[in-house]
Amino acid sequence: MKRFALLVAVLLLAGLIGCSDDSSTNPDDAQTDFQLSVSQLTFVDGQADAFFTIQSVSGDTLAWSITEFESWLAVSPAQGSASAVPDTVYVTVDREGLTPGEYDSTIKVVSENGSDQSIAVQLQVPIAPILFVDPQAIDIAENYNGALLTIQNTGGDSLHWFLTNHQPWLITSAFMGTSTGEIDTVVVGIDRGVMHSGLYADTVFVNTSDGQKDTIRVTMEVPQELASRIVYWTNRVVEENHYLYSDANSNPRDCRPVAHLELTDWPEDYGLEIFLMNSTNFDRYLNEESFDVYWHQSVYYEGTYNFSGSTVIPYGTIVYVVVDNTNLGWDETDFDFSNDKAYFNLSVDLQPE
C-alpha cells in the first residue's frame, strides 16, 4: 500500500515538472531578430508623410522586406539590410479617389530569418470643403447703397475663398477669407458717385484655393434725378444799363442747362440777353473784358420760351446766371434815352446727363 502511494506521488511530481517546462517555451514570448521604432502610424487630416526605422537586434547585417500594404500606401524603400545602424523607411499616403472616412491597413516587415512584425496604419480622409454662396444675384434698390453676401463651407476641412469683380463702382468689404463651417458675411457696396442715370451690372467672382467657383450678378440703377434748380425769378424787372445775376451755384453732376422764360413786357428794340457762365468768366464780364459762356440766349419779343443748352457743364463747376440789359453783353442797347425795361419770370435748371 505504501509502495502504491509513493508511486502516485512520484507521478504527480513528474506531471508538475512537465507543466512548468511547457510554459517557458511559449511562442508568444519569443524574441525577433529586428526591432521597429513604432507599432502604429496615424495619418490625420492634412498629413501625408511619416517614417519608421528597422534595426538589427544583434547588430549583424540582417536583410528585410515589406510584403503587405494597401494600394493607398507607398513605402520607400520596400526592402533593405539593417544592422546596428537603423534603416529608415518612408511612408506616404494618397487620399485621391478615397471616399471620406477612416481606413486601416498593416505594414508587414519580414526578416531573412522568417521572423515578422507589423505596423498598424490608420488613415483619415476628411469630407472635402464645399462652397456655398447666397444669394446668387443681388439687385440693389434705388434707396440703398449695398447688400449682404454670405459665403460658407458646408463640407469639411477649411475653405479658402477669394473675391474679384470688374467695375470700380462696386466695392466689397472683404476680398478673401477662410470658412471651416461658419458663415462669412461680406458687404457688397456701391458708389453711385457721379454716374449718369441708367442701369448698371457687374459680376462678383468667387474662387477657392481648391478650384471651386461661383458667380453673383449684381445690378443697380442710378435714377434720373430731378434737375438742380439754380434760378427761380418771378415778377422781375431789369432796367436798361442794368443786369441781374444769381448766387454762385456748384454743379452737382455733368449737366446741361434748361430754361423757361416768360417775357411779359419788352420794347423789342434789341435783344435781352441771358448768360450761363463760370466764375472766372463772370469776373471778366463784370470787368468789361471778353468772356466765354456755357449758354447764351437773346430774346427780342415778348412771349413764353423754353430753352436747352447743348454744352455739357462739368461736374463741380461754379456757375452764374446773368440777365443782361447793358452793353456788357454781346448785344448792345439802343441808347435811345428811353428806359427800356424788361419784365419777366425766369427759371434755370441744371439737368443731369
Proper CATH architecture of the largest domain: Sandwich
> How many strands?
27
Shape: rod-shaped
Strand order of the largest sheet: 2-9-8-4-6
What CATH calls the topology of the largest domain is Jelly Rolls
Distance between the termini: 136 Å
Low-confidence stretches: 1-30
Structural class by sheet pairing and helices? mainly beta
Count of folded domains: 3
How much strand content do the residues show?
over 45%
Percent helix range: under 10%
Q: What's the Cα radius of gyration?
A: 48 Å
The number of helical runs is 2
The largest sheet, given as strand count, sense and whether it forms a barrel, is: 5 strands, mixed
SSE pattern, N- to C-terminal? HEEEEEEEEEEEEEEEEEEEEEEEHEEEE
Mean pLDDT: 86
The first-level CATH class name of the largest domain: Mainly Beta
Descriptive notes:
By secondary structure, the protein is mostly beta strands. It folds into three domains: about 30-125, Immunoglobulin-like, CATH 2.60.40; about 130-220, Immunoglobulin-like; about 230-350, Jelly Rolls, CATH 2.60.120.380. Helix content is about 10%, strand content about 50%. The chain has two helices and 27 strands. It has helices at about 1-25, 280-285; strands at about 35, 40-45, 50-55, 60-70, 75, 80, 85-95, 100-110, 115-125, 130-135, 135-140, 145-155, 160-165, 170, 175-180, 185-190, 200-210, 215-220, 230-240, 240-245, 250, 255-265, 270-280, 295-300, 305-310, 320-325, 340-350. The chain has a five-stranded mixed beta sheet, with no helix packed on it.
